[in-house]
Specification:
six-stranded mixed beta sheet; 15% strand; Nuclease of restriction endonuclease-like (RecB) superfamily; 341 residues; alpha/beta
Length: 341
């Protein structure tokens, strides 16, 4: 008995030490990150103030960054490449004293963020990186897929500004819907004849990328989830659980245009899950018919008196045209400006 108690006490000790050590490592990394950002921000400040120092310093001109890179690299080794110094300078210019960069993101995050010229877009990706704890590859992927532009294109001026300042908060079913979903990571060329089962299979093979495209809070439950009604089997293509909204999310894949039959079928799935699969604490399930094409007028009539938890969205296999999306957003912002005058 004593041996069992001793072993238990010893295991508790090992656990406590391990937890404290891991926490200490995280705190050390955070401390280094905070110090690094502060240092780089101040180096940027020194460079800008030197440039603004008057005619006696004008002789350095465009060669200042090159000279600094050469001399500081000799003194301190790595870390003072020309590129790094340019971003340090830019960090100070884009994040002045009252708007210093967040310590929740790394220097590498800010290098990626500083590549974005538009302040609204940059602010969104900064906030979203903090909210969803994006790694550098995840941030690069979302920038490449034009996530901000896709989310902002259907919003009004106030909503666009809110999105840019605070990121995309998930408070209701509509907050998890995107238009379109970009599935470029599946590497399906266009035109290409594929089946719905092939599309589903490729999504499962690239599940991590698909979860990133879906957004924060999704947990994968299963594929071809069987529903039995009246001795007949039906299968939901993909089933997820959203831990923030506390509900199932059902996705039905369509290789062509979404039809009214697809909406009726998804509505049936939603009814089944709410009555047969939900447990205490679960909210009403959300259904997404994810199709290659959709007719908005047909969808509008097909959705009449149908669950508000059901959505029809498009997907595409290539990255969206950023210039076209940006033009729509700028037009929306300009329209609102003209109305304000």
């Amino acid at each position: 008995m004593n041996k069992i108690i001793q072993d238990r006490d010893y295991n508790d000790l090992v656990g406590k030490i391990s937890t404290r050590y891991k926490n200490g490592q995280v705190q050390a990394v955070q401390a280094v990150n905070i110090g690094l950002l502060e240092t780089y921000w101040q180096i940027g400040q020194y460079i800008v103030e030197f440039e603004q120092g008057g005619a006696e310093r004008a002789a350095y001109g465009k060669s200042l960054i090159n000279n600094l890179s050469d001399d500081l690299s000799i003194l301190h080794g790595k870390g003072f490449s020309r590129s790094n110094l340019i971003y340090m300078r830019l960090l100070y210019l884009e994040y002045p004293i009252g708007e210093k960069p967040s310590h929740l993101l790394s220097w590498s995050h800010y290098v990626e963020l500083l590549k974005i010229d538009d302040k609204l877009e940059r602010s969104f990706y900064e906030q979203q990186s903090i909210i969803e704890k994006w790694s550098i590859p995840e941030l690069k992927r979302q920038k490449k897929s034009s996530l901000f532009l896709r989310l902002a294109v259907s919003k009004n001026k106030d909503q666009i500004l809110q999105l840019a300042r605070k990121g995309q908060a998930v408070n209701s079913p509509i907050d998890i819907i995107r238009e379109p979903y970009v599935l470029d990571f599946l590497k399906i060329p266009e035109p290409h004849h594929y089946t719905e089962s092939e599309l589903e299979k490729r999504i499962i093979e690239h599940l991590q990328h698909f979860l990133l495209e879906l957004g924060k809070g999704f947990a994968f439950i299963g594929r071809q989830y069987r529903i039995t009604l009246g001795n007949r089997h039906h299968y939901v293509d993909l089933v997820f659980y959203h831990r923030i909204l506390k509900c199932f999310v059902l996705i039905d894949l369509k290789k062509e245009e979404a039809g009214y039959q697809d909406i009726g079928q998804m509505n049936m799935y939603l009814g089944y899950f709410e009555n047969e699969e939900n447990t205490e604490g679960d909210n009403s399930p959300i259904g997404i018919v994810l199709a290659k094409e959709k007719d908005d007028l047909l969808i509008q009539y097909a959705m009449h008196n149908v669950s508000s938890q059901l959505f029809v969205s498009k997907y595409q296999f290539y990255l969206p045209d950023k210039d076209q999306l940006r033009a729509v957003i700028e037009e929306q912002l300009n329209d609102n400006k003209s109305q304000d005058i």
